């Protein structure tokens, strides 16, 4: 009986050790990592944008100012400061450095109030649009969205001979689009997605 008891006891200890080893192995296995979502980039100021500059306790040098076509802005005590290509935070720090010559420890806040963006983030519409202009690109922007913002095409437009000029890997591509079919016939198949930097060219019709 003693021998059987010893045998059963040894088997119980061995089974417990195996069970513990299996648990340790399982718990020690690292969990698969989930890919973190890429952070969305901060908005970059571009020519044509408007910025609201607030200098704490100095309202006389605060205000709303446009970014010129050359990418610079001029504000009280700050002349020809490069703004295009910077975030609002970066621009605020640059303005603080410029104002430090006149104001002790300036605290500046910059808010972009009129969005156009840098040239490579714009959608430009030229030719026979009702309101040819540069538009800020927005995510999931379509050709129809662009046409709505520019008020459609003029009566002289050759809508079905329009094209999108797109730069891919440093090379320009020409994509033919059918504006008349899209806006006059309601043919949704003529709609297409836009990309930052696209130029929509709407030629004039020759009768």
Automatic annotation (TrEMBL):
Domain Polysaccharide export protein N-terminal, first and last residues per copy: 38-113
Primary localisation category: membrane
InterPro entries: PEP-CTERM_polysacc_export, Poly_export, Poly_export_N, SLBB_dom
GO cellular component: cell outer membrane; pore complex
Keywords: Cell outer membrane, Ion transport, Lipoprotein, Membrane, Palmitate, Polysaccharide transport, Porin, Signal, Sugar transport, Transmembrane, Transmembrane beta strand, Transport
GO biological process: monoatomic ion transport
Subcellular location: Cell outer membrane
A GO MF term: porin activity
Topology relative to the membrane: Multi-pass membrane protein
Domain SLBB per the UniProt entry, residue ranges: 123-201
Record NCBIfam families: pepcterm_export
PANTHER family: POLYSACCHARIDE EXPORT PROTEIN GFCE-RELATED
Record family assignment: Belongs to the BexD/CtrA/VexA family.
Protein name: Sugar ABC transporter substrate-binding protein
Natural source organism: Zemynaea arenosa
Lineage, uppermost ranks: Bacteria, Pseudomonadati, Pseudomonadota, Betaproteobacteria, Burkholderiales
């Amino acid at each position: 009986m003693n021998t059987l008891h010893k045998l059963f006891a040894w088997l119980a200890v061995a089974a417990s050790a195996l069970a513990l080893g299996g648990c340790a192995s399982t718990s020690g296995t690292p969990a698969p990592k989930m890919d973190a979502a890429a952070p969305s980039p901060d908005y970059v100021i571009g020519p044509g944008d408007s910025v609201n500059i607030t200098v704490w306790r100095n309202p006389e040098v605060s205000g709303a100012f446009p970014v010129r076509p050359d990418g610079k802005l001029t504000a009280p005590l700050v002349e020809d400061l490069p703004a295009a290509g910077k975030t609002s935070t970066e621009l605020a720090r640059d303005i603080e450095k410029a104002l430090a010559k006149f104001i002790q420890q300036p605290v500046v806040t910059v808010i972009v109030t009129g969005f156009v963006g840098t040239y490579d983030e714009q959608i430009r519409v030229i030719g026979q649009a009702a309101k040819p202009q540069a538009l800020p690109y927005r995510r999931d922007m379509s050709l129809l969205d662009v046409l709505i913002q520019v008020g459609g095409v003029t009566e002289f437009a050759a809508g079905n001979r329009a094209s999108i000029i797109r730069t891919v890997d440093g090379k320009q591509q020409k994509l033919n689009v059918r504006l008349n079919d899209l806006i006059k016939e309601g043919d949704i198949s003529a709609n297409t997605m836009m990309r930052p930097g696209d130029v929509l060219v709407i030629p004039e019709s020759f009768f």
